[in-house]
Known about the structure:
alpha+beta; 14 strands; 4-stranded antiparallel sheet; Ribosomal Protein S5, domain 2; binds ligand 2P0; lyase; MVD-like_N; 8-stranded mixed sheet; Alpha-Beta Plaits; lipid metabolism; 2 domains; diphosphomevalonate decarboxylase; Mvd1_C
Amino acid sequence: MTAPQWARAHTNIALIKYWxxxxxxxMLPANDSLSLTLADFYTDTLVRFTDSIATDQFxxxxxxxxxxxxxKVTRVLDQVRQLAGITAPAVxxxxxxxxxxxxxxxxxxxxxxxAAAAAQAAGLTLDHPxxxxxxxxxSGSATRSIDGGFVRWFAGHNDATSYAAPVPAAPPLLADxxxxxxxxxxQPKAIGSTAGMARTAATxxxxxxxxxxxxxxxxxxxxxLNAGDFVQVGQIAEGNALAMHAATWAADPxxxxxxxxxxxxxxxxxxxxxxxxxxxxxxxxxxxxxxxxTRAPHVAAVQRWLAAHFPTAQVVVTxxxxxxxxxxxxxxVDA
Length: 335
Ligand code: 2P0
């Protein structure tokens, strides 16, 4: 066994959304997705395997976690134990640096940090594709949080072929892109991502159209990234997000994550963009909050516009972040 190390993984925002599984056991998504790893939001995790306890233990921000979240952690740990040929339960300690105010899910960074920390603690040497497959077993979006920058998750057709890898982008796009998170609600949503995508996949008459749309959007996004064309990237991301949400409206029973303010912001941004030519595009995940995509020179104008039109919303700005990293246990990781 190697010396224990904390693993750090950053969360991500999808430009092409993952929405629907074709195999819930293997956690295979219905469609390829593509995300941007974010700089300011991450999870640090330390894993220690020990025969001195009977079952896996998981503490998040010093709170013991049980039930379904612990079951997801154990899924990842079981795979690590199988690969390493060990049977010991694990003590998992996690610290989230994903402020509630950012309105971003922490399952992506959490499960990616767990995969990296558990593999390290078990003495496994896994490359990034293998770590992303491990993270996938905890949460689909975590597959994309092993690498930094733009990341594509290949849906694949079995465990070996469903993994993520970085996608190149022409400079200065990666250095220049900014994500402005606009938070209307930090309350837990009524329908979680897992249940929401399952209902959409099982019942929405628009689901087949969604998967086709996602494939077509990805086909257009890759050359746009390769060309560093922010406007194209933003247009594709906004359209993809709205298409995902359209599929939820056509589910049975129908549902939406949008609040009135969500729609007001998306429409307001479209009008402002068209009238003023500001390159700013909206994307929305499984919740009411909006993430605006823009470029660094326009962040101040976007903030002023938000303050004028949505004065009560909380606003957090971030940029592209790195892939996983490691810190020796005992060293302060709160920097
Ligand atoms: C995404 N989301 O691509 C999409 C867009 C939410 C909306 O991935 O069931 O928490 O654990 O695989 O990863 C959220 O889904 O769901 C998500 P599971 P996860 O980012």
